[in-house]
Amino acid sequence: MVKENHTYQIISVILLVVVIAFVGLYFTKTTDCPEVEEKALLDAQIFDWAENLDNPNEMFFDYWIYNYGNVEAKNVQVRCDLWNEEGTSIVATARENYGNLASLSADFGEIITEDKANSYSLYIPLCYVESCDNCEILYKKIPDLVKSFEG
Q1: Beta partners for 15?
Q2: Where are the domains of the chain?
Q3: Which residues sit opposite 110 in a β-bridge?
Q4: CA nearest 90: which of 137, 149, 44?
Q5: Considering only CA atoms, which of 34, 44, 10, 3 is closest in space to residue 145?
Q6: In this predicted model, what pLDDT tens digit does every residue of 84-121 receive, in sequence order?
Q7: CB atoms closer than 10 angstroms to residue 102
């Protein structure tokens, strides 16, 4: 008789554990998780810069722009700066309303500016995404780059 009660106790404990497990699974499956808004993740990199040989009052900035996100980036603004050799001041700046960039894509862009730099000096070119709608800008996620880009 003692063995029978012991067997029933073991079976009861096993059934209790199974019921608790199913109840736990039910509540974890039915708990609503908030939807995370997907955003585009943008980056721009300088490719080249040069003076316009046809018009000595103009310069070109060529850059690549990347969207690492699963969402189209809208109203993208790209900025290119030309820093002096020491990296302490901006010599020339160009901005462009790039427009929209498809998800998971890259594109080549070019900005023409009338800001003129002395072609006989050394400069440090830098292009980056300045702003956009529904997106995150990659360099702003890296504290050291924020200091470099925004001075």
Answers
A1: none
A2: 1-33, 40-150
A3: 62
A4: 149
A5: 44
A6: 888 888 888 899 999 999 999 999 999 988 877 666 67
A7: 12
